[in-house]
Amino acid sequence: MLKLIKEVLRVGEATLPYPFEPIEQMPGFRGKPHHDPEQCIACAACAIACPPNALNITTDLDQGFQTWSLFMGRCIYCGRCEEVCPTGAITLSPDFELAVMNKQDLYERADYKLASCRICGTYFAPIKEIEYAAALLRQSGMSADALADTLSLLEVCPECKRKNDVPKMVSLFQKEGSDVQR
Amino acid sequence: MFSDKPTSQVVAEQSKYSIQLDEQAGQLKAKLLKDIHRSIYVYRIDCGGCNGCEIEIFAALTPLFDVERFGIKVVSSPRHADVLVYTGSMTRSMRVPAMRAYHAAPDPKICVAYGACGSSGGIFHDLYCVWGGADKFIPIDIYIPGCPPTPAVTIYGFAMALGILGQKLKATHHVQGEDEHVLPHYPQVPLALRVDIEREARRMAGYLYGKQIAGKFLELFENDPKHVEQNVQSYLDQQDDPRLTEIMNRLTQNYRTHQGEK
Question: ipTM of this predicted complex?
């Protein structure tokens, strides 16, 4: 008996005091994805990568808004959103205390404004995404002429781009004197 | 991505099956949630899960986490239970057993949706044979998300049910402000080098860690473009990790190739 008590004293207490004291998480622990809404460009890369569709992007073309949303009830903490995020807006935090009484508290939303096309005026892509693309092009070391040319195309919706491309191509072919009819 | 319309129709269809609490049961339940002055007996119902949640529930019973110190005990019959824990994405064939367990438990009872699947159907939410979460027809009081919830998450969820801890997560809604701009990271790193480093790191270390390692290398470059190799070496000495050293050395080789081309 005395031996047992000695052994118990030697081993000490194994139980973690968790709910009364904070618990230490291992490095590399994947918890709640932390979204920095100001760093996000609403490019939807995370929504495409998310295996359980916890991340969603919905586009409201009438109001000109793109809504990013995260439903924590579905997240499986795989980290694919962190992997694909081009701006580092999403990182998996060690935050794990996510239980809620009300299901609505599991939702996180962020609204982003859409840019309207320079030609037809319809909404087509988030303003921040276009700005980011322009900044990347500037950084990539393009020549000034090519850059100005590309930047003017950035603010045009895909539909208008297609419409503009046809006459451009025709004129290009005619200039080179090739057979367009063929 | 799926539009909202079909989902809401499905929910509307399912709601006719959902259990409605009568007034008295609701009051009793609210009282029970407010202050439980006794041990709680837990019955867990696996409604088509992968068993990950069960493993974590039993991990929470081990001496390391020991939920029995709060009087939480797992029982083998719903007739003894105060708390019903629904795990799994609620498959079509588990709906009736889930309802039977619910009706077998004495009132008032607390229902917990456990894990990503129990809260919403999780990764299986759009399968043909899945109802998508216990809350589709069972009145759920506490949602414990996680895939699976670790023992600490489990303890937190039950501590919330017992009123020891409060809820931390709140719904947020951000609206884009006037002055929000995002600039690319690492403006000093040439684009070709950056692409090369990121590709090589991902090839060596896999998807998430590759990005983190490449990010560290590019950060060292960004901070001091003239002494990249020395800084990488001192970082590696600090970390003392042979796998990291191998990958970082490869990245340094790529960097040298780029410098040579210049």
Answer: 0.83
